[in-house]
Each structure stands twice: as C-alpha cells, then as structure tokens.
Amino acid sequence: MCGIVGVVSNAPVNQLIYDSLLLLQHRGQDAAGIVTQQEQKFFMHKAKGMVKDVFRTRNMRALPGNCGLGQVRYPTAGNAFSEEEAQPFYVNAPFGIVLVHNGNLTNAQVLKAELFNTDHRHINTESDSEVLLNVVADELDKATRGKPLRAGDVFAAVRQVHKRLRGSYAVIALIAGHGVLAFRDPYGIRPLCFGRSPDGTVMLASESVVLEGTGHVFERDVAPGEAIFVDLEGRISAQQCADVPRLNPCIFEFVYLARPDSVMDGISVYQARLNLGETLAKRVVSTVPPSEIDVVIPIPESSRPSAMQLAQLLGLPYREGFVKNRYVGRTFIMPGQAVRKKSVRQKLNVIASEFKGRNVLLVDDSIVRGTTSREIVQMAREAGANKVYMASAAPPVRYPNVYGIDMPTVEELVAHGRSVEEVRQLIGADALIYQDVDAMKQAIGSLNKKLSGFDASCFDGVYVTGDICAADIERMNANRVKTGEEEADTSRLALPNMQGD
Known about the structure:
The two termini are 17 Å apart. Helix 5 crosses helix 6. Helix 11 links the parallel strand 19 and strand 20. The longest helix is centred in the N-terminal third of the chain and has 17 residues. With 501 residues, the chain is an alpha+beta fold. It has a 7-stranded antiparallel beta sheet. A 6-stranded antiparallel beta sheet has the order 5-6-7-8-12-13.
C-alpha cells in the first residue's frame, strides 16, 4: 500500500505535490519521492523517511517544472532499507519515463526473467515497481516503433501491459515531453481518481481527499482497466484498455487503510465504517447482552466511527478511554521488529476513570496478529475494568494479502487455524465478537450497487484475480520486505494506523 499523485499544470507543481503527499502520508512512511519535468528534463528527489523530513527547502528549489509525480512508500516486497527502492523509478527509453505505483505484482519474478531474456532490459532492484516500469516502457517502445507518440499508442501499450501483468496496480507515469499516463488494474483493487482545479490543473491521486485538500474538484474514479492520458496542455484522453474489467476494490481500504474523509469508488469511507458499526452491533447483542456493558471505548483511530454507531444503536455511553501519544515516532509502519518493539504503552495511555469498576466493550477496526489486542486488554484490566469485551469491526483475518498490504504469513495471523474462542483466550478478553464476512460486504457494498464485489481475500481467502495458489503465496512470502532484522514481526501495529497518528 502506497500513496501516489500526478499533476499537470500551467504553474510550478513542486509545492502542490508536496502538499498532496502530506495528505497521503497515512498510506506510507517508509520513503517519499517527487519528480518534476521542465523542458523535457526530469528533476528528482527521493529518500527514506516522512515527507516533512525528506524534503527541505533546497530540495524543493531543485524541483522546477509544471508537471510531476509523487509517492509515499509502504513496502511489501524487496528491500525496505534500500534508498534505491524509493519511488519514482526512471528509465531513459523510450522517450524517458518516470513512474509511481501502488499495489503488488504477483508475477513479478516471471516478468523479471522475461524482461531480461526476451526484452533485454535490466532490473536493478528487488522492487516490482521497477519491473512494472520496464514492462510499460517495453510496450510503449513496441507501440511507437520509433515514431512520435500519440494518445492511441499509449492506450495500445496499456492494453498489452494489462495482458502481461498480474496482481494489483494503480499507476501514474510521466513521459518526457508528452504528458502523464495513469491506469488501474482490471479489477480496480487499488484506488485512483482524478479532478481539476479552477485554473485548469489536472491531478490524479490515490484518494479524493488529496483533490479536495488542494483545491481541486473531484471528477471521478479511474475505472478498472481504464487508462487516462493528460498531455502537457492539460487535455485529457481516456480509454478502456482491459478486455473484461470488473470493479472489485480492496475492502480493507474501507475497513482500515483509507482516510475517513475520502470517497473511493463511489463509497464514503466514513459511511462505510458507520455501517460496519451497525452490523457489528447486531453481532454484539447475540454474544453479550447490552445490559452487561457499561461503556463502549474505541481503540484509536480508525475504529471510532464504528464504535460510535455501535454505541448509539445499543443505547450505551461512548467514551474515549485511550489517548494516543502523537509525538512517539510512527515506528509501527516501519519494517522490522527492532523498530516496532517499543511497548504499546508508549503509544497509548489509559484514562483510568473510564475503566475503573466497569464492564467495557473495546472496539477495534481489525485484529491481525493479536499481540496489541492482548496488551490493550491487559491495560484495561490494570486500569480497573471489571470485565473487558473486545469487538472487531472486521471479520477474522485468516489469510495473507498478496495485493499490496503487508499482511504477515498465516503463521503470524492470530485467527488462522483458530476458533474465535481460542483467539479470545489468547488476547485475554472476557468475550470476543467479530464482524461477519458477508455482513461486512453487504454493509459496504450497499453504498454502491455498481460494484462487482470486493477483494476480501485476507478475510475469505478468495483472490479475485483467480490466479493465486498456495505455492504463489509461499513464493511471495519469501520475497516479502527484507528488513535486515532476525526477529519476526509480532506487532499488530505493523500495519499503518490511520489518520491523526
């Protein structure tokens, strides 16, 4: 999971892209990069770290031009400690192309061998995004055959790209001297949208909040399989380039990853989380009588809408019982146990008066590894809670994700191969209530009837691309982020927590 943005304007875009990346910071804090173009020359700066730390005044001054790209990186494959794997990626032929990518190619190793042996292209990193860039470059080269680039050539190239790639991908590429190309995989797994500002600037971004937060008017989402080309004058051309496109967005975007103020594929993320709270309330009633619950307390941050809706429907008090220390480094999104092993207690502090002598229902957005849930339950007990019930707005996470979320191997997933009762015992709660998979899909899918469905593979084990088997998962696990750390990741906070962190 990463955040990407592309801009074509009639004014310098470096500050605009920087501001956009700040709005996408929740989608990745491992690295950040910006590339701009002036007179067919690219200017790039990228490095590991948060946006505010990567870009200083001197770096911004060195990024002239009226069009460009940006990315914040959350690594799921390759080497997370390598500066070389920060995006954007660049290739000099044909034309000169720079590219940013959100997603994960499931056939990257096959493509890498194909590029070397057949297309005679060299891949210098372990990143699947560099593989994707070279596939795009190779198909653009074949489509133009040395002739000037036209929009039709771009779309012809993307059609061939779709035939070669497997997995999830939202892509924005800048072609030197010509314009910006954006496209989305045929299942629309990873998000991408675009809009304009009153002065004619065109922006493409992972989430609608970026458009709204920078003064642009959201026009629409990029359709699954669709390619959009924006020339340097801001003229937009669009064409469907997939044979059988289907809209199956990643449901974890709505559960956890996206900002609540975004609208993705016609669905308000905030409303989706309210709906999850409503369906979760029904599950709670069937497990714990509301009369036995004194207070509902969310685990910050993204569980709040679900917790508020649940409390309202059950007629229970809603209280903030945990305060997050926003000035502790966001180590939980960083790879490697060594940078995650700080106690949850450094990030969360309890308001003891909300727990003492009460039966509390804690609501989290999801439970992945269970380590943090166990710690939080213990914190509630130490604060004086009489009973501690735990509810998850998402179903049990039982399967790895292969489409760009760094879900751990099945051995690390607390719900894999365990019953709800076994998980309850592991985290130490008096009761554990999970969302139902079908209820989750209905709660979110009801907000846009045009969806074909969702990728909910981490919950139901169904991989929408239809080409994933156990051997593929084992191979991709071997290529998961190399951290240089020997200890296994056991923290629930390994996934990026959301807005306000």
